[in-house]
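Repro case for the chain-ordering regression, as requested:
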Amino acid sequence: MRRSLALAAVAALLAAPATAHAAPEDVANAVAREVMSPYCPGVTLHDCPSSSAQEMRVEIAEWARDGMTKDEIVARLEGEFGPSIRAVPSGGGGLFAWLLPAAALLAGVAAAFVLARRWARRRPDAAAVAAPASPEAAARLNAELDRLRAES
Amino acid sequence: MRSLAGLGHPSLIAALAFAVIALVACALGARRGRADLALAGTRALYATAGFTALAALALLNALVLHDFSVEYVVNYSSESLAGGYLVAALWGGMEGSLLFWTLLLTVFSAVAVRGARRAGSRLAGWAGAVLAGIAVFFLLLLVAPADPFTTLSAIPPDGNGLNPLLQSPGMVVHPPLLYTGFVGFSIPFAFAIAALLAGRSDDSWFRSTRRWTLFAWSALSVGIVLGGAWAYTELGWGGYWAWDPVENASFMPWLTATAFLHSVVIQEKRRMFKVWNVSLIVLTYVLAVFGTFLTRSGILSSIHTFTEGPIGKWFLPFLALMLVGGLGVVAWRLDSLRGENRFDSLLSRESAFLANNVLFLAAAFAVLWGTIYPIVAELVSGTRLSVGPPFFNSVFVPIGLALILLTGIGPLISWRRMSRGAFARVVRVPLAAGAATAIALWVAGVDSTGALLAVALCAFTAVAIAAEFARGSRIYRTRAGLPWHSALVRAVSRNRRRYGGYVVHLGVVLIVIGFAGSSGKVERQAVVPQGGSMPVGDYELVFEELDSSTTDEKDVFQATIGVFRGGERVAALYPQRNLHRAQNQPQSEVAIRSTPVEDLYVVVTEFDSSGDAVIRAFVNPLTWWIWAGAAVMLAGMVVLLSGGSPRPAREARLAGVPEPAVATR
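-- result from build under test --
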């Protein structure tokens, strides 16, 4: 559930600027940011400085003025240039692209949490020597630590 | 005109010979404890640097004298190329950039090993051997497949010139800074490996290379920012970061190096994370070399194809050796690298640093995965796919926001343990500042969730950092009776590492504010006849005039764009569309009106036959803050680099080691 919410939040962050306005030019700009340029290696159509890319952006703006939606335009471009035109792969290949970094992050967070907890628990010697005798003593100790911290 | 280029190739062969001697002598000297061999190896390292410098000077001389008998000079310069760009041509092509890389490597190696020997470090021998081994690889490339001194039998009257995109002041300093960063990491890498080979599990390796690490990280940071500034002012798409594979290649080692700079503090303070730290520096160096491999192999499509060549395949075995060899040595010495302390509590600064490291590593992995995914997908499915900015942005935004939150929490939380009540007390004010900022922006009409969250977290972090400065100033004001500003200066100058770090963090906060502004970006494009106009945001742009002129290099076509706001002419901008004759390459020169509130960014992408201008115009809110933040970061780096080693007594106390009995008042 939390993961779904997090993904929805991320999607909202990304989608907000692109879909807030429905003007054809904004649709065209959103498309240009989501497809790679066939003319400049490694950059989106939006970022490509070549004049061919400029012409393609103009053509996409025309399609948007004709009423095509963002998804329709991207699908049309995919039909023309193949799946590599999408800046984010779709389908199974796309899912795999997303899953691994997410899995790595979750695994890293989980491993760090488990390790830190285990390390924090494994202090029998320290606990035996340093554990305050009472809650009052613990409160005094914490106050003293805070004071020292403030001065350091 | 003939030059000293004839000296170049023999110098490289001599440098290679001395690098091999340095490798053998340093390794044998360290292994057998023979001071004479170690000294001979160090001197061979100096000779390697000297001969590499001679080769670089020979190439520079050939460029300056326009010696078109040298193929490299023909490919990357021309008679009309201006002076500063002749120097930039040294790293403008693949062979020259490798020579420049090797020059930095050998000079840094000589300086670092000399410094270590003078300081009596026992690691100098093994470190010299590792660094000489790396130099052997790069010099082998230079004498065989990437020789910058290849000559032509038929000498052309002029050269092809430097790529017009590289003819920018930023491009004169951006590549050298990136290379300085990449190469600089070879020093802590070599000393880390040296410590493992020598069986030293203490922290002498990173204490003796702390300044090198900071220096390399600072150079890489500034280089990356300058690359962004170059893209912003030269490429004409209104942005500064495109997640291009080569940009990613510079960003990955930056991420792991930043993780290292944080986690090494835990080793200093608490003598923990020893395996983690050596692994991180190995990873950082391997990623730096991987970046060079990406740039030069052509394996991935990138707009940065200036230095692409056929030597990519040579890098793969070298990369494998660095990674497997580096991590292999770590595994070999694993037993001696056990931490000397444990976590006292989950609510501690150690935990914050650990979380910071997990996030930086996850970010580095995400960037690596997104960068190589097209190759992986093609290998697995046979289908070519692309991974572009939408992927990287969506992965990076949540990680980046979490990192900003940790940047604020870090200074507030105590080492070893902190009670929940105390933590709640110290986060109260920054939290209120963050919430108030978000509400104020929302009321003011900012509706992007991402921007609101980012700026709120920036406010939280800025207030947390400001509180640390206030606390430091208060202590010196109380103890020494100084006025607050003198007390602040005293606090900073006595604790440069701590406050330098805070200043760097403050710079990062400003940069993130700039990033957040991009959510309010407005972009318009139109074909505008002379005398016509187009709207963008609150502005009306009037194409008032078209002027043409000619220089030695190019035909210049300059538009005068009147900028009107509320009916009033507030500025004039002069974007250009030029034709570089040597390359027959058109190029746009961007015009920007920059203020702390927003940039008005205008580029003419084309003049058609009737003189109408195709204009792209952007209103980029808060972009100014990115460059301001970078300047603040740079100031913090200077403070950090001027700081000394941590105070041993305090470190020992934090690490749980008894302090020596010294009589104190």
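Ordering looks correct now. Chain B touches chain A through 76 residues (CB under 8 Å).
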